[in-house]
Amino acid sequence: MSDPTLQDYEAMYAGLLCAWDRGELRGPINHYNHEGGVAVSGFEMRQWLSMQCVKCRYDWSLRKLPYLQEAMQRYWQELSENGLNPKET
Ligand SMILES: [Zn+2]
């Protein structure tokens, strides 16, 4: 079985939102050679992958995705527990 392509990884990001401002993470996916990255089809070296938030331009690393999802859940749960409405922009 071959490694996932960049497009495959990009699809994994689909629907994810920035933990800070709920901005959408949108492609194209950013990547560069990095030993701590992931195997990508078509690249000899492992690639460090990230995608930018369309709002704050924060570059979210693929490696941080589990953290991102947990952080988002905590963030929005705290907001609702405090009776606060998420800020609409
Ligand atoms: Zn953002």
Structure notes:
A hairpin with a 5-residue loop joins strand 2 and strand 3. The radius of gyration is 15 Å and the shape is elongated. 28% of the residues lie in helices and 27% in strands. It has a 3-stranded antiparallel sheet, covered by helices on one side. By secondary structure, it is of the alpha+beta class. It is built from 2 helices and 3 strands. The longest helix is centred in the C-terminal third of the chain and has 17 residues, at 65-81. Bound molecules: zinc ion (ZN). Zinc ion binds at residues 18, 20-21, 23, 53, 55-56, 58.
SSE topology sketch:
Elements: H1 6-13, E1 25-38, E2 47-53, E3 59-61, H2 65-81
Antiparallel strand pairs: 1-2, 2-3
Output the radius of gyration.
15 Å
From the N-terminal CA to the C-terminal CA, the straight-line distance is 44 Å
Reading side by side through the largest sheet, how are the strands ordered? 1-2-3
Number of helices: 2
Number of strands: 3
Helix/strand structural class? alpha+beta
Q: What is the typical, i.e. mean, pLDDT?
A: 82
TL;DR?
This protein has a 3-stranded antiparallel beta sheet with strand order 1-2-3, with helices on one face. It is built from 2 helices and 3 strands.
Which features would summarize this protein structure in a list?
89 residues, alpha+beta, 2 helices, 28% helix, elongated, binds zinc ion
